[in-house]
């Protein structure tokens, strides 16, 4: 439960950062980039790199942190330009990731509450009705199962 809750909080923080900034890593040797921008997680790369355009291995990745210049995007998508030297881009909204993590946290919490209700001593395993004061072989007055 806490794992999903922490991921949801981190996702919301990432969304807030990406609303104002573009943050990510920019690759030089393979001509690509991955990061946060306009409320999305994105990945892009050039489809073909011309011979001799790669950078030396010591400058393979570069950190980037710049002000956002594009409008907010609220849905997932992709773009592919098949021409030589074209680009392939995939983006996914962070709010969907945060919503999924929040739903996972709520589902885990609900499961824990349900398991706790079922495991209480002296209660009916069908409905959770307290069976204190009932004879040992009696049925539950709520659901009719063996108490």
Explain how this protein is built:
There is one protein chain. The protein is of the alpha+beta class. It has helices at residues 2-20, 94-119; strands at 21-27, 32-37, 40-46, 61-67, 77-80, 87-93. The protein has a 6-stranded antiparallel sheet. The protein is rod-shaped, with a radius of gyration of 26 Å. The two termini are 31 Å apart. 14% of the residues are buried.
Poorly predicted runs: 55-59
Helix content bin: 25-40%
Q: Helix- and strand-based class?
A: alpha+beta
* Major sheet: arrangement of strands: 4-1-2-3-6-5
In short:
By secondary structure, the chain is α+β, with helices and mostly antiparallel strands. It has helices at 2-20, 94-119; strands spanning 21-27, 32-37, 40-46, 61-67, 77-80, 87-93.
What are the key terms here?
147 residues; alpha+beta; 31% helix
Topology at a glance:
Blueprint: H1 2-20, E1 21-27, E2 32-37, E3 40-46, E4 61-67, E5 77-80, E6 87-93, H2 94-119
Antiparallel strand pairs: 1-2, 1-4, 2-3, 3-6, 5-6
